[in-house]
Amino acid sequence: MTLQKLESYTNKEIIKEEAEILTTILEDIAKNLVSPETFNKILELKKLSVSKDYLKLDQIVKELSNEEMTVISRYFAILPLLINISEDVDLAFEINHQNNVGQDYLGKLSSTIRQVAETENAQEILEHLNVVPVLTAHPTQVQRKNHVGLNHSHSQSFTPTSRCKSWLDERNQMVQQFAS
Predict the structure, then answer these.
(1) Would you say 101 and 154 are in contact if contact means Cβ atoms under 8 Å apart?
(2) Most buried among 65, 79, 125, 173, by the most CB within 10 A?
(3) pTM > 0.85
């Protein structure tokens, strides 16, 4: 019997629908928070990216002010994170569903323990078992709030230089917004 590997599971139709909803929400928020000129540049960059018109895309990016570059890069950085959260929630839902209906899947802890217990060298295997947490460069788990809090506490432990002070203040405001 071949078991399904849930790490690569995605419900493409639901994720696509949620990505469209998240994109609309993000566009509505951006439209209300940034200048109309900057918002129009965001839309133009999206259009050029989809049409793969890299020459015009490059030209617009070169003409962006530092402030516009900051706002626009944040816009394009947030959407993949939101979509990633959506995928994680969908995966967690599927894992809970399979656990609730008693379905086995590759990597299910109870199934793995049962398999190990049935072997002759189960004690030896368990004695050499080593479980360690894995910290990723960009968290893809649903519990991002914990990572944001950890990053915030680390940033507070350093003495910022005058050049970094404004960035840290801005970052701290974002952390507070995401935390609430």
Answers:
(1) no
(2) 79
(3) no
